[in-house]
Amino acid sequence: METRLGLKENLRQFSLLVLVNMLVGGMVGLERTVLPLVGTEEFGIDSDIVIFSFIIAFGIVKAFTNLISGVLADQYTRKQVLVAGWLVGLPVPFLLAWGPSWNWIVVANVLLGISQGLAWSMTVNMKIDLVGPEKRGLAMGLNEAAGYGAVGITALLTGYLASNYGLRPQPFYIGIVYTLLGLALSIRLVKDTRTFTLLEASKNLVIDKQSPRQKPGLWAVFKQVSFNNKNLFSVSQAGMINNLNDGMSWGVFPVLFVSAGVGLEGVGWIKAVYPFVWGVGQIVTGPLADRIGRKPLIVWGMVVQAFGHVIIGIEYFPPLVSGLSGSVMLGIGTAMVYPSLLAAVGDASAPEWRASALGVYRFWRDIGYAVGALIAGVVASWFGLVWAVHLAGLLTLASGIFVWSAMTEPNRLSR
């Protein structure tokens, strides 16, 4: 069969990858509502930094795995790396459900970070490979909608299970289904997409004139994405701050709202609304980024997220109302930002080294999990949990202003 770029032309394989990424995202959703409370209530940990250590471990490991995932995809195949990600993730739900100490929870998150770094990176790369340059925003919107929609749904389900059956092990049974199904689909049905990258490279569709055409080494790509290319630097710092918000909310929100008198089901709704709105919203914002450009959505998405922090942090509304309202704003802002950032990296990198460029961007983005959890733990220890929310909002606003001043919008359709 002839290899052709495009969403319609590759709809079956694209749809399969959407389903696979739902399962990948669901694995992160397992932890969003329940795991911080496992630390405080089951293991009796009273240090915010220790409680957030599982997020720090997850973020650092996932970031470095992202960095090498592109190199692995170039050396082997995207499908092989995807399958490896699922294999590494197989023990995770078992460790979360029955790990006898907090150290085992941290180990589970190290494995989860590796698994996510390999599997999610490959679903991103494979969808970009399939659709070509003109539909990258749509492709990333659908990919991230599937992943983070599943995060939200799973967070809600685990909150329900925890409120009815206890914090462990029942909420983590879902993860066993996710891993087995994701591995089976990836082995049996997913096809590799290397031929699509070769086809795109042959068409000479380079978009960002700052970027080299020839494939550079990993260190050269790292420098290009991290500081040499102004657009990629803008994207990388915005991605890091965006996930700083997620890492902060992951650890802070369950403890903050339980201490404010919100029940487990209420916390489950708060934790579900953020990624669910984030996920579903990208169905709209992904294609919108193809129409109006990446920069406007990135800038205003960061501003909307900062406003969400204000709603949560002012302590004016009842806790459940402020939690739900602020989480909706965080979800809308993140939906604006997330596919736009990924598509912008695709714009600024040639097909020959795009997987490595995405790996470097995702390295900086997911370091934000660790930075957010660490900052939240330190600030919460000194000033209280709500001040961690305030600081995250200020950093988000500053990041959006920087993108507005530094990033230029490339002509995505130039040939």
From TrEMBL:
Keywords in alphabetical order: Cell membrane, Membrane, Transmembrane, Transmembrane helix, Transport
Topology within the bilayer: Multi-pass membrane protein
Organism of provenance: Dyadobacter jiangsuensis
InterPro entries: MFS (IPR011701), MFS_dom (IPR020846), MFS_trans_sf (IPR036259), MFS_Transporters (IPR050171), Sugar_transporter_CS (IPR005829)
Segments crossing the lipid bilayer: 12-30, 50-69, 81-98, 104-124, 145-166, 172-190, 297-317, 323-346, 367-385
Principal cellular location given in the protein's record: membrane
PROSITE patterns with a match to the protein in the record: MFS, SUGAR_TRANSPORT_1
One cellular-component annotation, GO: plasma membrane
UniProt GO MF annotations: transmembrane transporter activity
Major facilitator superfamily (MFS) profile domain mapped to chain residues: 1-194, 231-415
Cellular compartments annotated: Cell membrane
Protein name from the UniProt record: Putative MFS family arabinose efflux permease
UniProt xrefs under Pfam families: MFS_1 (PF07690)
